[in-house]
Specification:
heterodimer; A: about 650 residues; B: about 100 residues; Helix Hairpins; elongated
Amino acid sequence: MDDLLFLIPALPLLGFVLLMLGGRRLGEPMAGWLATAMVGGSFAASVVVFFGLVGRSAEERVYEQTLFEWIPSGELSVSFGFLVDPLSITMALFITGVGSLIHLYAIGYMHGDENFSKFFVYLNLFVFSMLMLVLGDNLLLTFLGWEGVGACSYLLISFWFTDEANASAGKKAFVANRVGDFGFMLAMFLLFFNVGSLNYSDIFLSLLGDDVIAQSTATAIVLLLFLGAAGKSAQFPLYLWLPDAMAGPTPVSALIHAATMVTSGVYLLTRMNPVIALSADWAPDIIAWTGLFTALFAATIAVAQNDIKKVLAYSTVSQLGFMFVALGSGLYVAAIFHMITHAFFKALLFLGAGSVIHGMNDDQDMRRYGALRKAMPITGATFIVGWLAISGVPPFSGFWSKDEVLLAAYENNVILWLLLLVAAIMTAFYMSRLVFMTFFGDARWNEEHDAAEATESVDADAGVHPYESPWLMWLPLVALAGLAMAAGVLNLPFSHDTKFLETWLEPVLFGNEVHVGASSATKWVLAIIAVIGGLVGIVAAAAVYLRKRLNPGKIELDLMAKGWRYDEAVSWFMGGPGRKAFDAITWFDRRVIDGAVNGTGRVTTLVGGRLRASQTGLVRTYALAVVLGTAALVVYFVARTSF
Amino acid sequence: MILALVITPGYYLALGALLFIMGAVGLLVRRNPLVMFMCVELMLNAVNLSFVAFGEAMGDLGGQVSVFFVLVVAAAEVVIGLAIVVAIMRRRPNVNADDLSVLRG
């Protein structure tokens, strides 16, 4: 069964190659079906490998499969191999599972696009890169996937590149990610310098010994890795590329910018948990507090957005912050659990939003939505499931995972818990706002048209007529809604036996998982507070947006709509002082570095010009010089031996 | 009384030195390329003579072996050198070495 392992990344790669060569000839919809079949096959292979792993005893659930030696170079030897363990196979399962559903959806969503097959070329390449990221048995292979998903993200964000805004959004994502990649690379160098290997199992094995790396080194590695994770997983201060990434087609937002790629930072830090365990105590605290700040910060921005995808984007940033709080508190299982449930419900919400945008003729402004549940019953019903899940209403999956994250925060620090609870309440609030503005209330989609009709003679049939999406699009919605509803059973907190995920992930955590000391009474109280918090958020949103008890303008501050002007501040800084610094560096490069190079050349030319006079071209002069030189040498040696 | 003349290596070395100086001086004072070439050969063979003399004096075959190397290199050098000299002489008969200064810097 392990022989099928290579198929997991190989099938999407094959799909990429086939579509690259013959995608245009296949055309629509065959190209999409081929891509979907490849990812679906990859999912089937993952399931087989997963059950192979389940069949083993807990100690044997970690193994490596090396295909070939990739970079043999002296002390540095990097193999092209896969690390199969509960963590990587869990990631592979939900990447390929959610991935194939989104591929299916994309066949319907991209209908009629002139670059239909190219879209699936990129999508398959993305799935391949993402699988290399999670399955690679060493940091360099993970980095290969890491860069691969970054490149695909860039290509897909600027997929409709003829629009200037989309192209620059792709560029922005790429540049922000480079900052994080730089941290990842430095962490790799440090690890190799201190441990002498990039292979995960070698690193972890050598860390078991005493004093392999100093605490300060481990701290530096963790912080650099966190910089990388913050870039990829859109944490403060590098989050600002993710909201702009919504310029891409909606299936891309669902797959890359909600379910899979943005969670790779969480994967990386979970994978490197033995290093975190060796670092100074304040390093995980930095991770947790950064996560908390991001969660709160992004939630406040989400409250004031009117673009449906922007709300979901800031919500993703915020939810990723939740995961980092769990990571920083040492509850890796809670982070992974929330990552999985988030992948389900956020992919569902994005695909639902895509379905709405599709039905509304590409209008993304929620102010022109309203009462859409009647026009799109399936999208509406599944979206409501996603909404309840993310708001933390039991028994939907989001409740269970968010409860674990809140428990992790409580275990770490009560203030952390309290602030995270505020973020959770705001999550419920802005998601309810989105749902009420989109699916409930009055239909506002033809207000402008009707106003125009009353004054002028406009064709009454024109205007927007929302309609339900084709089955290709609602089928994945239904499947994801089922998952978002039921994924909580992965890790029910009632007894140790129902914590399947925790037991399952034990081999990869090396006992670094913090054990919660709170009594079950405390846990009940915390859970009830969390549920009440979520309901408060929903009720508050209902009061404002359904009953109109309060003018929404009082909540949706202009400052929040503009993202606390953080984007502008960065632009200002980069355009002002940053620009000057770059100019200074350019000046230094041109004058000092290039000057040194050119100066060397100029001095050589000058000296050569003087020296060439000694070359007379007369053979006898040269002969005389040789004879005199020889005579001088003879005199020197004779003198040295004689005296 | 017949003076028994014992020939020691010193004689050979003296002869070698003499030949070498003749060659060197010839190289420096003559202007005919062909003669200069012959002077170089003279110097080479003066060195060969010294090699053999030293080899004999020290009982080391290395001296003899070196001579073979020098001969081979000299033969190769003669081939190329003469070819160049002949080529020059064909183009510019009666030319002397001082006239050939095209490689002046």
